C-alpha cells in the first residue's frame, strides 16, 4: 500500500502535468460551467461578456477573461472567501461552450477550409476533417492560437505511434497551416518520372534513393549521362553531370539532394544530347507529384 506522503507527491505531479497542458484561456462569449464542491445550489453557467467579465451569484461581477479555467476557479474561491460566504471553497471551472466554434485548416490539405468543432481536438483529427495532407504537403505543421496568436510547431511523423504520442491539441478558433513540402524531381528515362515530396522523417534524400523511388532507370536509359539541375539562391540554375552509372555500381559515392533539385536521366537515342536546362525546368510544371 502506498504511503500518504507518496500519494501526495503523485497527486502534485499529476496536477502539475495537467496545468502545463492547459493552454486554452477564457475569452469573450464563452459559456462557463462553475461548480462549487458540496454546494450544488451555487453551481451556475455564466457567459463571459465582451469585457471579459462574468456575473456570479453571491459574488457579482468578476473578471475572468484571459485566465485559464483553473486560475478562474481560484479567483472565484478567493472572492467567496473575501465576501465571507465560505472559508475553504473548492471551485471547478470549465468551458461549456466556446464562443468561436470553428477551426481553419489552410495550405496543402485535400479540402482546406473552416470546420466547426465543439471542443478541443487533436491536430491529427483536425487534419482528418480537411481530408488529410495532400501529396505536396509538408509534415512540419504550424498551429496558431486564436487568443494569444502563439505559433506552435508540430511534426506529423510517418511513424503512427510517434505521431499520436506527440500530437497537440487544437482549440476552437485556432488556425492550422500545412505548408508546401520541398520537392525533388526525377525526370527522363525512369520508371515513374515526376516530382517527389521530401516528406520522409528526416527530409533527406540522395540521388540513388530518389532514382529507386522513381522506379529505377529503364533499359533504354543512359545513366552515365545523368544531369543534376540545381536552383541557386538568385533563382538561376546550375547544371552538372552525375556519375549515376558508377553510383549504381558502387564505384562513386552517393550524393545528397536539395529542395527543388532536378535529376534528369537521358534516353539512349539522346546519348550525345546535353539536357537543355530551360526545357527541363519548364517540364517540372506538368510533372506528376508523388507522395511516399
Question: Can you walk me through this structure?
Answer:
With 292 residues, the chain is α+β, with helices and mostly antiparallel strands. The protein has 3 domains: 80 residues, wza like domain (wza like fold), CATH 3.30.1950.10; 77 residues, Outer membrane lipoprotein wza domain like (Outer membrane lipoprotein wza fold like); 108 residues, Roll (Outer membrane lipoprotein wza fold like). It is 22% helix and 26% strand. The strands form 5 sheets. It has a 6-stranded mixed β-sheet, sandwiched between helices. The longest helix is centred in the N-terminal third of the chain and has 18 residues. 27% of the residues are buried.
Q: Which characteristics define this entry?
A:
single chain; 292 residues; alpha+beta; wza like fold; Outer membrane lipoprotein wza fold like; 3 domains; six-stranded mixed beta sheet; five-stranded mixed beta sheet; 7 helices; 17 strands; 22% helix; 26% strand; rod-shaped
